[in-house]
Amino acid sequence: AQKVTQAQTEISVVEKEDVTLDCVYETRDTTYYLFWYKQPPSGELVFLIRRNSFDEQNEISGRYSWNFQKSTSSFNFTITASQVVDSAVYFCALRLPNTDKLIFGTGTRLQVFP
Amino acid sequence: DGGITQSPKYLFRKEGQNVTLSCEQNLNHDAMYWYRQDPGQGLRLIYYSQIVNDFQKGDIAEGYSVSREKKESFPLTVTSAQKNPTAFYLCAIKDTGFNYGYTFGSGTRLTVV
């Protein structure tokens, strides 16, 4: 069965701290896609990144970086020098090829205090 | 402006009533989806439609119904058979580009009073 686990329910940090959000996934398929979405208080889910299973390169986008490790089935998300605007719920998700749904983790609520 | 529009943003329903949530898109995408979000449970798929006049049940379809008469519209009806309808409902389309994921609407928060 496919599953996504985000063990951290809530994280609180002070502005400018670095923070890592963990994501562990389960699948027997060798081809799959992993995603991170941000859900600000407004409610809309905002796409952050997609990763293919055959591409283990880490990615950096400004203050955001992602560490994909197939050996540990993890796809962790790090925010460097966090800001108040980063406060949101962050979801990790898994999608298999030839299926039409995303399997979401339960989300991690990040609160960044000034 | 292109995108997905969900309405209303907030909706209140009395017990025993059916209520319909609207989802409209002008991005000309074929596939549309409805997800339900409950606190601490992430998002769960209710129904999806890959083409006009066709739709499939997701993981939690009981108590819900949908229609897809037009490409732009995928309304979700929460029926009285849904025992715990209070939740946040998100509509999405499947991206055909590099993303291979979904673009979501802004959601409808349904509360049973």
Topology:
The complex is a heterodimer of chains A (114) and B (113).
Chain A: E1 3-5, E2 10-14, E3 19-21, E4 24-26, E5 33-39, E6 46-52, E7 59-61, E8 64-69, E9 74-79, E10 88-95, E11 103-104, E12 108-113
Parallel strand pairs in A: 2-12
Antiparallel strand pairs in A: 1-4, 3-9, 5-6, 5-10, 7-8, 8-9, 10-11, 10-12
Chain B: E1 4-7, E2 10-13, E3 19-25, E4 32-38, E5 42-51, E6 54-57, E7 64-66, E8 76-78, E9 87-94, E10 102-104, E11 108-112
Parallel strand pairs in B: 2-11
Antiparallel strand pairs in B: 1-3, 3-8, 4-5, 4-9, 5-6, 7-8, 9-10, 9-11
Mean pLDDT of chain A: 93
Query: Which bin fits the share of residues in helices of chain B?
Result: under 10%
Strand count of chain B = 11
Radius of gyration of chain B: 13 Å
- Count of DSSP H/I helices of chain B: 0
- How many helices of chain A? 0
Class derived from helix and strand content of chain B: mainly beta
Global geometry of chain B? globular
